[in-house]
Amino acid sequence: MPVSELAARVGLASVFALWFALVWRARPALREPRLRGLWVTVLAATTAITLFQPRIVTGLTSAGVHVHTVTLARNLIGVLSAGLVLLFVIDARRDPRLRRSVAVGLTASLVSLLVLDLLRAGPSPEPAVAAQQPASAAAAYWLILVVAHILGDAVALVVCWRYSMRTTERDLVWSLRLFAAGSVLALVFWGGYLFDLYGLTPDLLPYLSVIMGVHGFLRAASLLVPTATALARAATALRTTWRLWPLWRDLVTAVPHVALADPRRTRLQEVLWPRCPPALQAHRQTIETYDALLTLQPYVQPDAYEKAHRHARQAGIREDRLASAALAGVVGQARRAVLGGVPPSDPHPLPGVVHGSPETLLGIARMWGAMTDALPCRDRTSPAQQP
User: Fold this and answer.
1) Could you read off the pLDDT tens digit of each residue along the chain, which spans 387 residues?
2) Is the dihedral of CA 253, 259, 265, 267 positive or negative?
3) Collapsing DSSP states into helix, strand and coil, what is residue 378?
4) For residues 201 and 195, is the Cβ–Cβ distance under 8 A?
5) Which residues contact 371 (CB under 8 A, 6 or more apart)?
6) Which of left, alpha, beta for 63 (phi over 0: left; psi -120 to 50: alpha)?
7) Backbone dihedral region of 122: left (phi > 0), alpha (psi from -120 to 50 degrees) or beta?
């Protein structure tokens, strides 16, 4: 595949990713002042990157928009995005005087670009050539455009990385680091773009376009970190619900008073149509399973754990799963005692079951199918179980 075609595909994919991230994160970002600056900064950069794509420029020119208007708008929005990057990272440092200086410099840069564009001499370049070129051929125009971007991205790289090393909020750390990584690629792009404009490195633009596309993906990722974290937590909670469900269903069937709601017919229904958010559902089932284990302690026989442990070892169960297998066997025997109407006796605590540890409960659930009926259950007429 030619580099130019690869650049076009990567560029369009990054544009779609950026706009998706902006729309997806618009509501929460605009509500929270800390995230608003990042969102607006990425919005400006996304608009400039969108107008950098040759296919989009071609589409706009086909709709009647002059190519010079597109390139000038791209240049102005690009410098605006560079200034917003500076204002965003300076806001984190809370330096009012520096913010005013940046605002003045940004305004001067934008006005300078407009003046230089108005003073440009000669006919406009051909649309096919000008699609990814600056709006003006003046060297001063090029320098203002490129230096503004390099300055903004260099400061963003330093400040975002340093701040990410000091904060302990995981989402913020990754957002800042992804933003800093995108700034590195932006620095590479604008340094190479200046060389390309002066003709020092011919045919470099397609490679730079690929770099700008990857930069767009990193900018989108910096916005989507909270979404990725939420999805990861939901996936973990759903996995916990799925793995715990057989044990939870059998125990709350035996002692239904510990459950807020009856189990559904299948665990697929429990996962696909949860009654509450996934994290809350996983937490609720963990607590209810632990409460059921406490309720079953009066039905645990004194030597049940040792017998279940020996049975598991003889069955060839792995050493690291013997404790969980033994607990599964004990709990299975106690559950069948309740269902069989055996009267309770003195409680016998279950070894290793402390404060409803999810890892312990999931270990029991893993061995539940193999050890549920491992130990025989005395019936209600057994003398050892009489009150």
Assistant:
1) 678 888 889 989 999 999 999 999 998 888 877 778 778 888 999 999 999 988 898 899 889 888 888 989 999 999 999 988 888 777 655 667 888 888 899 999 999 999 988 886 455 444 433 577 888 888 899 999 999 999 989 988 998 888 888 888 888 899 889 999 999 999 999 999 888 888 777 778 889 999 999 999 999 999 899 899 999 999 999 999 999 999 999 999 999 999 888 888 788 888 888 788 889 999 999 999 999 999 999 988 888 888 899 988 888 888 889 999 999 999 999 999 898 888 888 888 888 777 768 888 999 999 998 888 878 876 555 544 443
2) negative
3) coil
4) yes
5) 308, 311, 312, 325, 326, 328, 329, 332
6) alpha
7) left
| Residue found under tokens 């773009």 | 193
Q: What is the pTM of this model?
A: 0.78
Instruction: Write out the two tokens for 285.
Output: 């089932």
- What the block records as the tokens of 345 is 């006796």
Query: Token digits for 170?
Result: 């995981």
